[in-house]
Amino acid sequence: MNDIAERFQHVRSQIRHAVSIAGRPRGSVQLLAVSKTKPAGDIATLYRLGQRHFAENYLQEALGKQRQLSAFNITWHFIGPIQSNKTKPIATHFAWVHSVDRLKIAQRLSEQRPAHLPPLNICLQVNISAEDSKSGVSLEDLPALVEEVRMLPNLRLRGVMAIPEAESNYAKQRQPYRRLCQAVKELNRPELDSYSFGMSGDLKAAIMEGATMVRIGTALFGERQYD
Q1: What is the per-residue pLDDT across 91-123, written as a single tens digit (0 to 9) for each?
Q2: Whole-angstrom Cα distance, residue 105 to residue 82?
Q3: Is 227 within a domain?
Q4: Position 226 in a domain
Q5: What is the pTM of this model?
Q6: Who wins on pLDDT, 151 or 224?
């Protein structure tokens, strides 16, 4: 068994274990393979092992991989920062966008979503740790943005995404996710069913607090060569 296959089995085992401990239904957490900086061949290897959802941060790199892997039935997620001049190809070539943090970007994605495609699945990025270095709407401004984005015709608002401040302590890892989940539940919007959080270092904490999609890169593909 090659390294990717071994890592894939290990990550899936970790997810199943955390789901079990949390008392959640089997299959309630989707593995999202973060393939940025990794070659198309690695994505193909994971696809053949059964992985279908892949996430990219860099648009041009992602579009190149999509061309190389056009024969594969991959669901592509965009999780990187979004510039206004990049919204059209994102709206055209992805099924999910996790990093919408302001109304202007959401409006452009809605306007530029091709008519022959289903509505674009959207998660709003929340700056849950209030870090100056990170994008995201504040927890206080989230309710207003939810109401604005959910009205856009070619988008399907699904939930939230967050990247908390790095923390090694398990109990402290859980705290920001708990705050975010509680804030979303208080909005009383049942359609907000997707919680995109948890990475290689805090997978268990995220699942314990309600993650429905965990974004895993390093634990699947190995260390990145560049960012």
Answers
A1: 999 999 999 999 999 999 999 999 999 999 999
A2: 7
A3: no
A4: no
A5: 0.95
A6: 151
